[in-house]
Design goal:
The chain is mainly α. It is 51% helix and 7% strand. It folds into two domains: 199 residues, no CATH class; 83 residues, no CATH class. It is built from nine helices and eight strands. Helix 2 packs across helix 5. The structure holds zinc ion (2 copies).
Length: 325
């Protein structure tokens, strides 16, 4: 039980309901199809028990599947961490800088946002991800990012297996005629494989190849976006809304904008999220900040916050006018 509880946080088991949603159903189906087909095709193409290469290939496949599912389920079930209902800052004076959430009946801690889908204020909310049917935030940021890295790696490996299986199985069945190419799927190969590679097997492999390539490209792009966000220690919402640094420098205010949670180095920002224990540093409420900033530099009520939003508004109005002209 103790061994199991290191992998599964039992207090989060009620979160299993999150599986009943199109996002996890599609994501888990893609993982199941790609890994099952890759294992079956490996048996045909590179029998694992005869050669070291075959064994390594098969063990790596199992490895990808386990790691991908481990990070995926942790991202979903551990969740982002929520601000306690009715939360107030310890120092009453700080309340003036914070927004009040009427749904959670409490103040929004720095970096937290209220998610309408989760119906709670989420610690360091990055975005609500439909594929894990949960928010990506403080506690699951590392699991989520690891999943985004591992899924394209696993899918690329699977894609190589699909291509090699189809190539080796079809090679002796293709005949080239005068301006025609014929594939004889009933032809018996010189070395009879353990399992027959029939038309349905070919179609299933081709389908799985499409899924694997699509996942590699789409999830791989998400990984690079997520890493850029994580290394600058910003969050996706802020990044999408404003590109703060660019715009403020664009207005030549003469003052450099410092994002308060950027600790001043990519490695420092990385270590804050990725730890050996799997639990990120901090309590999700009070954040380490850049020496030139304070806890409420970016929260409502602070002069900087107002200044920053006026600039963004002006920029949006200008863009709107330049588009309409
Ligand atoms: Zn709330
Ligand atoms: Zn959410």
């Amino acid at each position: 039980m103790k061994f199991l509880s290191t992998f599964v946080a039992f207090e989060n088991l009620h979160e299993v309901r999150r599986l009943c949603h199109w996002g996890p159903i599609i994501a888990l189906s893609v993982i199941a199809i790609c890994s099952t087909m890759a294992m079956l095709d490996s048996i045909i193409w590179y029998w694992p028990l005869d050669t070291t290469g075959g064994s390594i290939n098969f063990i790596m496949l199992i490895n990808w599947t386990v790691l991908i599912l481990y990070n995926y389920f942790n991202a979903m079930f551990v969740g982002p961490g929520y601000i306690p209902l009715g939360w107030k800052p310890e120092n009453q004076h700080d309340a003036q800088y914070l927004q009040y959430c009427r749904v959670c009946h409490g103040y929004k801690a720095p970096r937290s946002h209220h998610c309408r889908k989760c119906n709670r204020c989420v610690m360091k909310m990055d975005h609500h991800c439909p594929w894990i049917n949960n928010c990506c935030g403080h506690l699951n940021h590392a699991y989520f990012t690891s999943f985004l890295l591992l899924a394209p790696l696993g899918c690329s490996h699977a894609a190589i297996i699909f291509i090699m299986t189809m190539y080796t199985q079809l090679y002796e069945r293709i005949s080239f005629g005068w301006s025609t190419v014929k594939i004889d799927m009933s032809a018996v190969r010189q070395f009879q494989p353990l399992m027959p590679f029939s038309v349905p097997a070919f179609a299933a492999t081709l389908f799985a190849l499409g899924l694997a390539l699509g996942t590699t490209i789409a999830v791989g792009m998400l990984f690079f976006i997520q890493m850029a966000v994580l290394l600058q220690s910003t969050i996706l919402i802020i990044k999408n809304k404003c590109h703060a640094k660019d715009r403020i420098q664009h207005y030549q205010t003469g003052e450099e904008f410092i994002f308060p949670y950027d600790l001043g180095g990519r490695w420092l920002n990385f270590k804050q999220v990725f730890t050996w224990s799997g639990t990120p540093k901090g309590d999700g409420i009070v954040w380490p900040i850049h020496p030139k900033c304070h806890q409420h530099t970016l929260t409502v009520g602070s002069p900087y916050w107002l200044y920053y939003n006026v600039l963004l508004f002006r920029q949006s109005v200008r863009q709107w006018f330049s588009k309409s002209n």
